[in-house]
Amino acid sequence: MSVKYSNKINKVRTFALSLVFVGFGVMYIGLFFRETAWLMGLFMILGMLSVGLSTVVYFWIGMLSTKTVQVICPNCEKPTKLLGRVDACMHCKEPLTLDKNLEGKEFDERYNSKKYREPSQ
Ligand SMILES: [Zn+2]
Asked: TM segments (predicted)?
């Protein structure tokens, strides 16, 4: 398989973490505009919004985590959390499924989608 799949919870965590860095970066850029108060203020507000949004995303992933199923990965034997019908192991990225019908089939994130269609290619 050429495409790398990653665990959804890890993906969202990475996104939230990057929002924090973007937020601080934007606030830092704001410091270069110290002479222009409104421009500096604008960057500060944008930065704070980004950091605030990451808090929301962290909160959301916390809520999502309660809906996940914890399983022991058959490949690396570590506990991992699954979200949706198919997800990848947090540690070794082994594709895992909760649906017996999908066992043995090629991993496809489209199985999570309700409007799943046959692959076109
Ligand atoms: Zn694993």
From this structure: 12-31, 37-61
- pLDDT for res 1: 44
Residues with CB under 5 A from ligand 1 (ion): 73, 75-76, 89, 91-92, 94
Decide: helix, strand or coil at residue 71: strand
- Where do the structural domains in the chain lie, given as residue ranges? 8-65, 69-112
Over the stretch 15-74, which tens digit does the pLDDT of each residue have? 999 999 999 999 999 999 999 999 999 999 999 999 999 999 999 999 988 888 899 999
Which letter does DSSP use for residue 110 in this model?
G
- Expressed in angstroms and rounded, the spacing between residue 115 Cα and the centre of ligand 1 is 28
